[in-house]
Design a protein that fits this description.
about 190 residues
Length: about 190
């Protein structure tokens, strides 16, 4: 007995079992793959632009700018302004030989003690009548320390390993809310 193989029946080719098409899912995935990186780029560009404007404004300042100095500035100049301080202002000058950060803030007596400790001295280092910031530097930002109606104390904190000198003046006329003036000088 001979069997012959017959050719497959003519007609359209056989398809695998029907799978539902999810074109909408593919469209959503493609849209997200484009939209998320594009959104990230737009947000990054916006933040970068804002950061540049802030830095340009601070760099063009000729006197105190009433905002917190950056964390990097506070660390470089050893000016650990306590959290919760009010009326914070700063001004920075730079030259080849030395850089200075002027800072001013109002705080509580407890915050003043914490500031002095973090700067490297005890609050007892503040001496009555001691003017530690010279007039030439005080005039640069409009500070006046010659008013006899104000009670002022001062101290100088030196950090030899970082070549930083922090001059502190504190107006304790209102003992519950002292005003702190800081001139920090660093030499590379």
């Amino acid at each position: 007995m001979t069997t012959t193989l017959s050719p497959p029946p003519a007609g359209p080719p056989q398809r695998p079992p029907h799978r539902p098409r999810r074109r909408w899912l593919a469209a959503v995935v493609v849209a997200l793959m484009i939209a998320i990186p594009a959104g990230y780029l737009v947000l990054s560009a916006y933040q970068s632009r804002d950061s540049g404007e802030d830095k340009a404004r601070a760099a063009s300042a000729r006197t105190l700018v009433y905002e917190w100095p950056s964390k990097v500035q506070r660390r470089i100049y050893n000016v650990p302004i306590p959290s919760g301080s009010a009326y914070v202002g700063h001004f920075e000058t730079n030259s080849w030989e030395r850089s200075r950060l002027y800072a001013e803030f109002r705080c509580s007596p407890r915050q003043l003690s914490a500031f002095m400790e973090d700067a490297g001295a005890d609050v007892s280092a503040l001496e009555e009548g001691e003017v530690t910031i010279e007039d030439v530097h005080a005039d640069a930002v409009g500070w006046r320390f010659d008013d006899p109606s104000r009670d002022l104390v001062g101290a100088v904190v030196r950090e030899p390993e970082t070549h930083t000198e922090v001059r502190v003046m504190v107006d304790i006329t209102r003992e519950e809310r002292p005003r702190v003036y800081v001139l920090s000088t660093t030499e590379p």
